[in-house]
Amino acid sequence: MAGNTFGTLFKLTTFGESHGPALGGIIDGCPAGLTLDFEAIQLELQRRKPGQSAIVTQRKEADEVQFLSGIFEGKTTGTPIGFAIQNTNQKSEDYNAIQNSYRPSHADYVYEKKYGIRDYRGGGRSSARETASRVVAGAIAKQLLSDVKINAFVSSVGDIFVEKPYQALDFNLIESNPVRCPDPETAERMEALIRAVRKEGDTIGGTITCVIQNVPIGWGEPVFDKLHAQLGKAMLSINAVKGFEYGSGFCGARMKGSEHNDLYNEDGTTRTNLSGGIQGGISNGMDIYFRVAFKPVATLIQEQEVLTNDGRIEVQQGKGRHDPCVVPRAVPIVEAMTALVLADFYLLEKTNKL
Amino acid sequence: MAGNTFGTLFKLTTFGESHGPALGGIIDGCPAGLTLDFEAIQLELQRRKPGQSAIVTQRKEADEVQFLSGIFEGKTTGTPIGFAIQNTNQKSEDYNAIQNSYRPSHADYVYEKKYGIRDYRGGGRSSARETASRVVAGAIAKQLLSDVKINAFVSSVGDIFVEKPYQALDFNLIESNPVRCPDPETAERMEALIRAVRKEGDTIGGTITCVIQNVPIGWGEPVFDKLHAQLGKAMLSINAVKGFEYGSGFCGARMKGSEHNDLYNEDGTTRTNLSGGIQGGISNGMDIYFRVAFKPVATLIQEQEVLTNDGRIEVQQGKGRHDPCVVPRAVPIVEAMTALVLADFYLLEKTNKL
Amino acid sequence: MAGNTFGTLFKLTTFGESHGPALGGIIDGCPAGLTLDFEAIQLELQRRKPGQSAIVTQRKEADEVQFLSGIFEGKTTGTPIGFAIQNTNQKSEDYNAIQNSYRPSHADYVYEKKYGIRDYRGGGRSSARETASRVVAGAIAKQLLSDVKINAFVSSVGDIFVEKPYQALDFNLIESNPVRCPDPETAERMEALIRAVRKEGDTIGGTITCVIQNVPIGWGEPVFDKLHAQLGKAMLSINAVKGFEYGSGFCGARMKGSEHNDLYNEDGTTRTNLSGGIQGGISNGMDIYFRVAFKPVATLIQEQEVLTNDGRIEVQQGKGRHDPCVVPRAVPIVEAMTALVLADFYLLEKTNKL
Amino acid sequence: MAGNTFGTLFKLTTFGESHGPALGGIIDGCPAGLTLDFEAIQLELQRRKPGQSAIVTQRKEADEVQFLSGIFEGKTTGTPIGFAIQNTNQKSEDYNAIQNSYRPSHADYVYEKKYGIRDYRGGGRSSARETASRVVAGAIAKQLLSDVKINAFVSSVGDIFVEKPYQALDFNLIESNPVRCPDPETAERMEALIRAVRKEGDTIGGTITCVIQNVPIGWGEPVFDKLHAQLGKAMLSINAVKGFEYGSGFCGARMKGSEHNDLYNEDGTTRTNLSGGIQGGISNGMDIYFRVAFKPVATLIQEQEVLTNDGRIEVQQGKGRHDPCVVPRAVPIVEAMTALVLADFYLLEKTNKL
């Protein structure tokens, strides 16, 4: 187990710390014969990359993926796809200050207690840099599922929310602003808030909404591996995520059955979609949508108390190049994890009937 | 995969439809030498059982578990624990009405589309009756983790919420009322609401909060199998669940880092606990707490439109003996799934250091 | 892990000791819509059953399987198939003698050391009675793979070998004699040997050959899950098995490449088949064949030294009703495990191409 | 599944074709705090490496492993250990001849049929070059199990066998000759045979015996994951392996129970060890030993008929730099796979008792 593998049939295993020679992964189970669009893969990495706009961390990372196996003359061969991303910007000296101390709401402390050792450089394995590998694999999963449309976007930053239902949004506008919010006016207010927060050396939380369209009826497994349970696990495995809801979500817990039930049309579609496209853990052909909550990044550029490894509380000045708000860069990660979940169920579904 | 197994080292596989001869499961990986308290196991089943109070379904089910293997002279032997619960109250005729139609917001339709066949009696495998097996396994997991305290309770029904923080509640009061809410005044209002809703033939949603105490530092695996990701998956695999949040949850997404960070005390505990007892997916020794949203039960005792399998919309009178609100009976299920997740990490943690 | 599950997509988990209330299992992943032939399943159990002829153990066991779930109106529904076989002949008193001692070449000693506890009645979980569950699951796997022909037979008992190549045998004769050897003359000599050995209170080893026909090209996975590696593991998991070889096997290790290579015909078949129908772990469309070695049963009806649990050597008179030679009854077990391996690869193969 | 992962708790996933940029793998589950001896790892790679002596292939491969993650200041951190070995000697042009044809007893044909595409350069994923990754992981597993002694050696080449029992051999002599046979006189005869075979452009099969000492009582899981079943699968997953036997093996199938049973000493050891150190799938504290059969390498430096992809039979001259006999270089691979199996059971055993 050890937690570095995701998926059963379309299976990603990742390796790598933020400051080792490289990070990467192995995709096992991608069917043979898929012509890969390498530019599209690299584009997803660009969306996740630091330094892409003024409201994200200004760290420089090349984030170029090198494929090592499993591809021949541009096509997948059915053998495992190994890939690596070099860590080109390893300023380990930046982290000497934190070698002997534990930052609040970081994983420093628990890693050291759990393993008796920790790679303190840049958060080691707990760094969100690991998600670059997920984006690579998710980009391939997206290509495998070319009919399925996955659109994630920032639906709130702090107290600023997109008020419109997703049906009223134009997903083509997601990439039109650095916040990745398809509601341009709201995006501007979000961006202003992030800039203000950054000026204070502070950070701010937010939410991402993801909409999945064109999933056929029948994906997902009953009981433990329900489609939404796997999506929930996938999202909760992303750094900084604190909550997941799909369909009516937490609002649904306040409703009556007579309000909540989605009545059928004659063709099997439903008039409303509070179910969020999933019944009993299985896709019903309607849009699947869910929402993910991200806490504010724990690294502040402010003075803050830390615990030293000899049991003292010290004030430390936060420094480094960190994100004031993680959600804009998390959008491609949410999409990637969604694609990985769906690819697994797509393959599994091939085995359910005679 | 096929979704009927939960866990890696403490592993539960379940079988059974609501109206077959029996349901049950196999627990594989329970360590040898655990003296089982069989009354405690049966007690958990009683908490989940229909007919236990006036505000739950009045179906009669004996729900007595029979252990078939893996136990010798009252102790676990390290071999798989097989168990079965007979279905003694199979009124299949009740369900003839639904044989040819799909009820809104039930899994009828997707099962038939997915598998090309469905056991239409009582929801078949999608029935919440399957959770009885989880409660049995969870009760054993609880006994394995005897130092860990798991307390779940109803924290809202419809718009009625427990306003106090969990620290202000007396968990000994959870079982003092049929709602399983440890805040007696709130419990009364909840009970009244459920009775009113039932009178209308309607149903209502709610939430359950779960608090886990005494988990040592270090449980949970980084990256994909984070402790909260497994808890989230476990909860989302329970029938009718629409959302999961832990620690600050969705509220955390509205906060700033300077408000959200949990500053350390010198002993490694934290002054606040917005993290919810988990950092980077690993327990940090503080209380773990999370909240789970349940939608209102889809079965109404009202007239409602259904889809027939020849593509017509018909009005059908709901009947049967169903829960007006699922959360009181879901409390032991939430605890059971929590225990299963923790038992897995407890065993895995034994393998992480030399 | 814990070792009670076999397979990934067509997955069997078993439970049960020889002297508990019941044994059985759960089959997860059998595709929906398979019409089951229940008589054929029971027939396979009869082939494994004690007391079926004069040369096997005279224990009486009913060995009737009861299906508990996953089947509706005679067809699989895609949900887990739970089943149980009651233990009707539990003479625990027979085993009191062995409660405090360890029999040579039995698993008594290692179970007690491993788990600190053992169910000493009839070998507990180490009893070959567990294989009844495998035969049930294997019988269903056979029905899933109706085009594939699996024929196992006894190819040697002690020093008496079937000298003919399998192509010269009529598999219809396998069930014509109690030894399950399709070469009638050799079968007679084998039967005489088994009778003589039984008279001495002794036991004798033997081998089983299995031939699989009509497997399409492409089943099996490269690298770790090669088709023959899974077959080997499956066979070696059967009680008393000491060796496995396929194709040219150990003889192949004495040959030169120029003798061993199987030259092609123009249609892709090969002129010889020393490869045993598998190249690089993948079926090549030719017959697959392998041979399995079984040691002589350890339980003798002779005086024998045992180790007591207080560290003394004592002479004990073997008693009970045991098999003088295990291979006749192991034939359906070999076939069952073969079918389980193939069912898994059959399902997996559906996911390998776009 | 897809077959590129081995192990459950100590888990190796490999990637890489013989002629891509690199091959390598990820080891997940290695406990934290293990100080690695990198020279010992590289030494194992040297043992497997082509060109090491006159009787193996003269291909030149650097085979230097680069570790990419999971190690900090010379110790394992508990996070996944990623590693890569560059392919520095990719002469793809050598393989143009085989692009359109299928060599007898190679995996060319089945790969192309299975996947609809094949990387024909050097055997692609079916190349034994993949085993370099296994040797790296096995070397780490050996270090984890420092008390356990694993010694594999060549026990036969063609018809030349080591006649002495392993107890009469000095394992320190294994590396004293290029054959890796600890019986010097026999080694000389084997070497002469290999040289003669090579001169003819032919190849020859052989066997490897492996002896494991100091395994504590209790490793291995009953039923499906028996210690010898996992060892068997591990061995059968190595290229060119045709058979596996442990303890008395195929000879045991000719014996009587009264000859075969291993009588106990008062301390729980046994006077004989036909069981091969394993009872009921669980180690009993005695030496574990097994034997593995390797077929002759299929690549000949002779004229040979091949099948073209347009369905014709052509005569092709074999060329390239291939091993006349695979067993000398397979010795470290057998040891590596053995170590991987044992590491998994070592970790699992930590979870079996309270």
TrEMBL record, chains A, B, C, D:
Instruction: Write down the CDD domains for this protein, in alphabetical order.
Output: Chorismate_synthase
Query: Which pathway does this chain act in?
Result: Metabolic intermediate biosynthesis; chorismate biosynthesis; chorismate from D-erythrose 4-phosphate and phosphoenolpyruvate: step 7/7
Provide the binding site for FMN. Answer: R125, S126, S127, N239, A240, G280, K295, P296, V297, A298, T299, R321
Q: Where do the annotations place NADP(+) binding?
A: R48
Pfam families attached here? Chorismate_synt
Any note on cofactor binding?
Reduced FMN (FMNH(2)).
Instruction: Provide one Gene Ontology biological process annotation.
Output: amino acid biosynthetic process
Ordered alphabetically, the record's keywords are: Amino-acid biosynthesis, Aromatic amino acid biosynthesis, FAD, Flavoprotein, FMN, Lyase, NADP
Q: Which domain of life is it from?
A: Bacteria
Q: What EC number(s) does its UniProt record assign?
A: 4.2.3.5
Cofactor(s) in the UniProt record: FMNH2
User: GO cellular component annotations, sorted alphabetically?
Assistant: cytosol
**Catalytic activity, as annotated:** 5-O-(1-carboxyvinyl)-3-phosphoshikimate = chorismate + phosphate
Q: Which family does it belong to?
A: Belongs to the chorismate synthase family.
Job of this protein: This reaction introduces a second double bond into the aromatic ring system.
- Report quaternary structure and partners: Homotetramer.
HAMAP family, per the entry: Chorismate_synth
In its UniProt entry, what is this protein called? Chorismate synthase
The protein's organism comes out as Flavobacterium stagni
